[in-house]
């Protein structure tokens, strides 16, 4: 488990994250166990990160972060309630923006992965990323010669961190359409015959055992029982077989795709 060794500053966001340097020498955006979304948001973040890594999606490294006792005094002086137990840290992407221009999006070397991101969000029932907000998106665009899109702030997978075994099982056959300004910005780079087919195939190719394995060592303090994780893995296994039908409902937003009989 990584140790937070230096507090840097607070960051903007609903979950009230903080920037810290950790024992591996890297900076992390840390969500505390006391964050306003609830402690299970940390489990959602880690599950999403590990699944994304299996699919080679652009998500920053996620780590369990322990806040060293020497930092607790700093937090108290700053007026923050740390909360007990382990926290979640996402590797900090420097020189980036969460409010990219259309030109910055279009120049990303991995812009084609937008199809994978949309498909992944549908698979994980993410009700948050498709929006466009004046104060920042659930993506980052790193700036430089090899600029790219990064997926961040994934606490709202499973339709939010307050999911239950019953709600995720109900979601297996329930279609929820997620479409909005951010996804619409991706259309010119994805439009064509079957834009989501390869992304769906990659998810369907994952062994069922992997879906359970990635949850095996989540901290118990994050409030998700083993039985709940087994149910969640089963629901994810089932949901992926509905992706083709669900994403077909987006065809109306893609002019070239729509024109193909």
UniProtKB/TrEMBL annotation:
<protein>
    <submittedName>
        <fullName>HipA family kinase</fullName>
    </submittedName>
</protein>
<dbReference type="InterPro" id="IPR046748">
    <property type="entry name" value="HipA_2"/>
</dbReference>
<feature type="domain" description="HipA-like kinase">
    <location>
        <begin position="10"/>
        <end position="160"/>
    </location>
</feature>
<keyword id="KW-0418">Kinase</keyword>
<dbReference type="Pfam" id="PF20613">
    <property type="entry name" value="HipA_2"/>
</dbReference>
<keyword id="KW-0808">Transferase</keyword>
<dbReference type="GO" id="GO:0016301">
    <property type="term" value="F:kinase activity"/>
</dbReference>
């Amino acid at each position: 488990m990584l140790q937070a060794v230096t507090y840097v500053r607070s960051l903007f966001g609903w979950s009230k994250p903080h920037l810290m340097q950790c024992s591996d020498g890297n900076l992390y955006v840390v969500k505390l166990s006391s964050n306003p979304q609830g402690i299970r948001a940390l489990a959602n973040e880690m599950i999403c990160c590990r699944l994304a890594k299996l699919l080679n999606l652009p998500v920053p490294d996620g780590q369990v972060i322990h806040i060293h006792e020497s930092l607790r005094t700093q937090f108290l002086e700053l007026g923050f309630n740390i909360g007990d137990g382990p926290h979640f840290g996402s590797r900090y992407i420097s020189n980036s923006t969460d409010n990219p221009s259309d030109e910055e999006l279009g120049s990303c070397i991995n812009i084609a992965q937008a199809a994978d991101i949309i498909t992944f969000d549908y698979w994980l029932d993410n009700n948050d990323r498709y929006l466009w907000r004046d104060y920042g998106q659930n993506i980052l665009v790193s700036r430089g010669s090899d600029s790219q899109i990064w997926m961040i702030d994934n606490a709202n997978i499973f339709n939010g961190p307050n999911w239950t075994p019953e709600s995720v099982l109900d979601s297996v056959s329930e279609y929820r359409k997620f479409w909005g300004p951010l996804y619409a910005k991706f259309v010119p780079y994805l439009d064509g015959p079957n834009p989501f087919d390869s992304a769906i195939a990659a998810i369907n190719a994952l062994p069922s055992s992997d879906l359970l394995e990635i949850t095996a060592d989540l901290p118990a303090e994050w409030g998700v029982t083993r039985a709940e994780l087994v149910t969640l893995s089963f629901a994810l296994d089932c949901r992926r077989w509905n992706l083709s039908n669900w994403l077909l409902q987006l065809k109306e937003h893609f002019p070239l795709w729509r024109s193909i009989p």
